[in-house]
TrEMBL record:
Location(s) in or outside the cell: Cytoplasm
Species for this entry: Candidatus Haliotispira prima
Motif ('KMSKS' region): 272-276
Alphabetical list of PANTHER family matching this protein: GLUTAMATE--TRNA LIGASE, GLUTAMATE--TRNA LIGASE, MITOCHONDRIAL-RELATED
Family of this protein: Belongs to the class-I aminoacyl-tRNA synthetase family. Glutamate--tRNA ligase type 1 subfamily.
The name this protein goes by in its record: Glutamate--tRNA ligase
Transmembrane helix listed as a keyword: no
Catalytic activity: tRNA(Glu) + L-glutamate + ATP = L-glutamyl-tRNA(Glu) + AMP + diphosphate
Motif ('HIGH' region): 13-23
Binding residues for ATP: K275
Amino acid sequence: MSQVAQVRVRYAPSPTGLQHIGGVRTALFNYLFARRSGGRFILRVEDTDRARSEDHYIQDIYQSLAWLGIEPDEGPAEHGFSGGDYGPYIQSRRVELYRKYTQQLLDEGKAYYCFCSTERMEQLRKKQEEEKSALQGYDRHCRSLPPEEARREAERRYAAGVEGQGCTVRFAIPLEGSATFHDLLLGDIEWANGDINPDPVILKADRFPTYHLANVIDDHLMNITHVLRAQEWLSSGPLHIQLYRAFGWEAPQFCHLPMVMGRDPATDKLSKLSKRHGATSLLEFRKGGYLREALINYIALLGWAFDESRETFTLAELEGCFDLAKLSRSPATFDYRKLEWFNGRYIRQYSVPQLRKELENLWQEHSPEMHGAVSVENLTERLDWILPLLQERLKSLREIPALAAYFFVAPVYEEPELALPKKHTAAQAAALLRKSRSVLEQLHSRDWVWETFDELLAVKQDWEASFRAAAADEGVKMGSLMQPLRYAITGSNTSPPLIESMIVLERLAGGEELLGRLDSLAMCLETGAEDL
Ligand code: GLU
Ligand code: ZN
């Protein structure tokens, strides 16, 4: 009876940049596939490009996964992950292995040393360009060197330590035939060997492997069953298949995920998502006040859909329903507005204490952009009262300092026309402000006792009743009375709930502050009246 192998998938980022949307999507889909099929999700750091790999990018990989809650079942033990049985999970710690397997290919005549200098390669490239030659890339110059002689020359160079100008090892792509593989999403892929870039380097002059070699060896040694990766890697598939064949190994199943595109705001054209479309790194979104739930939900929908109608999913829900059969073949377009919409949704689902905790963590790591005289300390102390007022209208946590600024500094009245109710002149609006002033004076003369937000809402009932009575008195709608008042207090005509805001402001800054704002807007309306 044949036993079905346990699913083992991996996320194999190269630490050469910050984790971006595409990478996170690959990580997420691998993770979900593992969870759904009772398999294992492996994190492998592919840091064989010595010049471009950086430690802080490795940290960014770990932090990104941790923040999202995508936990590897196996990963670099030296960095605190539960090690599996297939370590090390950092490629730079596995170079001896890659050298050993390269030697095997050399011994079997499936790879060969190349001594071509960079100058020669450059000349070759120029010549091919000038002659518009059908043959592009390496001309297999060293493939015919007598192996024994080449070996001695390579040893001599290695011994002399002239690594930079030393030699590389190239994989001898079979001259005839083709590579075929079945992609779980794209179906059968066939690629003539003649169309594979001639004889790619597998061991570089620094004796570090290239991506192709290390990736294939590790996927094999780590028993990877499925390779889910971005479609950019599809064209490497045929080469990888040839490498598996050369080693006599069975290749894993491939599934190349749909591209993630961005829309150019100026031309409306689609191209691979990149910086010119906006933020692309997870870190930027974090700093920008996006919640993990929103990112996970939205990223899950990049090239995948559960059905036509359902679009909100938590990570746990995705773990239960993710299915490769529901991947889309067409490219996905990253929609910043949609992500923002999800973010607003999840912000509203957070409780105030949760939101507060999230903010404090965020501000500890990335100090927020403050407005006017507001300080993080001030804001943090008042969050329990302020957050419930802002929560309804937030699209991202980053908006909080600006939206909350009116609790700490008096607004500047740059657009006094926003204070005018429909069909009202500036003078009439100023009169309404004076009416509101008298209401406030009366309210201030009483002692309002409240601590919690619920108690505040009870106080609000009384305040609101007073303003309603005043509006009736003046023969105007409540909305008309509120409009200049709202602008006076908040400097905006689309502010968070006004009466609650005034109650909080009275507590924070005293009643005089409220009256002062009404007076200065009234003055502004009276003096600038002709212009309005
Ligand atoms: N290290 C490659 C990357 O950075 C991995 C590609 C693959 O999954 O094979 O994307
Ligand atoms: Zn050569």
